[in-house]
Amino acid sequence: MDAPERSGGGDSSQKRGDVHFWNLRRLPDARKTDCRPARRGNRRCDPGNGITSGHDRAGGTESAKDTTASGTETAVSDTKKDGAATIEFWTNNRHDEAYMNEMIDSFNASHSDIQINYTILTDDWANSIQLAYQGGTAPDIISIQASDNMTLQTYVDAGIFYNIKDYIAGDEEFQKVTEAYDHKYEGLTSFGDDIYWVPNGVRTGTRIEWNKDLVNAAGATEIPSKLSDFVELAKAATNDSTYGIAFTSSSPFSRWLEGCGEMSGATPGGYDYANGVYDFSSWKEIVEEAAKLYADGSVLPGSENQGVDNSRALFAQGAFALWGNASQEAGVFTDQFPCSFDWGVAELPTLTGEVKGALSCSPNGGYVMLSSCENKDAAWEVIKYFSSEDFLKGYFEGGYSIPLSGYMSNIVDTSNIGRLADFELQDYEDVYPATPAVSVEGDDWKTVLWNVVLGYVSADEAIEDLNTRYNAALESGLSNGTCKRVIVENYDPLQPSAGTVTYKTE
Questions:
Q1: Fewer CB atoms near the end CB (10 Å): N or C, the chain?
Q2: Is residue 40 part of a domain?
Q3: Of the candidates 37, 35, 38, which has an alpha carbon nearest to the alpha carbon of residue 156?
Q4: Total structural domains within the chain
Q5: pTM for this one?
Q6: Tell me, what CATH number does 133's domain have?
Q7: Quick one: how far is CA 10 from the chain centroid?
Q8: Model confidence over 39-52: pLDDT tens digits?
Q9: What is the greatest pairwise CA distance in the chain?
């Protein structure tokens, strides 16, 4: 379905509830970059690098799990056929492992000229790709999503990512299925006419998942739209046997507070796109209000020190009432940690109860060809397969992601996607342009603001520190040529992708 019209004009707020499956707008082309391939010799993944390669096995295609010397768990699918080109494929996705194994096995069985080796790398993803490239052990293709800690500018400037625009231009079927030219995101997937990956799906932004029994017992029948009321609900749901909310040691700020700030109109990532500087002052009220959760004793003790799956399991067991995370939770609470109670999905609260900024959503389901790939034609065939109609239909109907292209949205049987339907893309969600690739000394902004929530530092002190360090890093990057100032002309916080992106070097 087509995206609903967004509100504009003088009213900065937006009504909730308009639903669509897709249609994130294309950002204007603003830069061209020449990615020069770096050729490397034949290589296999070296266990000494902490990444396990496939092994010869009798009986053809087989999948297994190995553990590297560094403790990194990988899933490996390996086949060999005489004379076939072997394409090494690495991913950091585990939630779709069963489907990927099935489809890769099917590809390998039906192709005598190309075979795919499949590896899941679960630790230090972004850094491992750089190290493997530098060491000559890089894979041929990798999966990628906008939420990965992989700044496009960094990998393009280093010559790691290969520009696939010519392959796309010569493949009408790929263009039709992915709507590649309609889903270019400046600084995230492309620079100007140069395209490094094409997203097939989208991970919607954070929602509040809630235990209906516990929330009802606390005297509420729905999740409040105002942050202060949400904090009070968490307090009311806390008693001798349950707590109001929990966090996790894995990106606790990002789980829902970041989205709450964005929807409240705070600068995303602290970056003022209109003026091209960092300014974190708009986050003050958000973190001060959230800090009350700890002051009130509403947070499950110790949750912020344990992994995300531990917190998910405790939610499924009814240990606390409120949880915040994105669309992957549809599968988590259905299959991985099934809930014994009825659970709901609600929009994030905001400071005023109105939506004044876009909630960031992340294009995903893309594949990058590395410049070190020896057989780029074969690698492109694999990318085409992973982006084909048949592959994607099964992927989306399996609930692993939400389709981005209108073409695939019209094909997917939404009755098959289960609870993922509760996370459908909303009209207030959009893709933000990439911020400058600054190198900041000390803790990053999410860590610092999270320390405010924990009560370790005041909001004023944290914001002054962040503004000083981030703007210093920006100026340093501009002076030494490692980053560019990003300016979005006609910037609208409700429609950040609609403005024109420009780059400045001073």
A1: C
A2: no
A3: 35
A4: 2
A5: 0.73
A6: 3.40.190.10
A7: 32
A8: 223 333 332 333 33
A9: 68
